[in-house]
Amino acid sequence: MTVTHALDNAPNAQATIIDGKAFAETLRKDVAIGARAFREKRGRAPGLAVVLVGSDPASQVYVRTKMKNALESGIDSFPHLLERDTSETQLLSLIDKLNNDRYVHGILVQLPLPEHIDESKVIAAIDPAKDVDGFHPVNVGLLGQGRAKLIPCTPLGCLMMLKDQLGDLGGKKAVIVGRSNIVGKPMANLLLQENCTVTIVHSRTRDLNNECRQADILVVAIGRAEFIDATAIKPGAIVVDVGINRVEKNGAPLLVGDVDFNSARNVAAAITPVPGGVGPMTVACLMKNTLAAAEAIESDAAVRF
Ligand code: NDP
User: Fold this and answer.
1) Does the global pTM surpass 0.85?
2) Whose CA is nearest to atom 23 of ligand 1?
């Protein structure tokens, strides 16, 4: 969250740093207020089941962060930490149990899953009403039709920060680097709904730098450390760096984005840092989605009973 209006910055001034950590903190507080009201009305907190298969160190960190955020947001979390050799059938049976558990309003399966488990089958088994990651085909379809209910957390967090910077996004030229199902494609749909003119570029795009240089809004999600530098950025653009890459610099481990931050900040009007940009917003949006799912499920239940 920042106080300056990004496009007011003169090109070549140092970019405004978009503070995703502070933004996420504010969002978490809002969710906590909603969660408290939910608890007072329903007699229980919104509940989030977090499923981790195996012991990948990065995934373990993500799961711990999500549970800590849930606690801070007034959301009950139910961890399910499964052995790496858990079978697909066992995992699907757990999902079925969680789908029918009235204390669970959101189900998050930490990806990637071990190779012997079909990820798409597991995602499709989650009740779309509890799909707080927004990856179920029903939620993907609703987003595509402009009728989204649960929106994937990372693009949602990016959109919130962009709107905070720019207000109305209508008419802006947005370029998204990367076309994954969890970031690039839903980001494109969201920006299209905000009336941006949207281009998606990927590994087969010709003259990628030239495409990127057209962007008022540049969202980068490719998983290549510091791949996009100032030569690919239009002066005055807003740059959202989704990438998280673990590298070594001067013998020390370091997290960097997909954007070369030090070069980009001399050209962009505003930029998200890594760490402290998109990452914290992704987790806060997961809490926002869990509260939204809880409210929707319980109000539907009230109608049904
Ligand atoms: P994927 O690997 O699923 O997709 C990467 C995309 O980038 C693909 O579309 C690929 O193109 C494209 N790409 C790869 N290399 C190039 C290249 N040299 N030039 C142009 N395009 C390229 O990645 P994700 O979307 O899952 O993640 C992207 C990054 O974002 C990762 O660093 C990940 O860790 C991070 N991430 C961060 C999150 C957060 O909360 N901050 C959440 C999710 C992801 P093609 O399709 O042609 O192969």
Assistant:
1) yes
2) 222
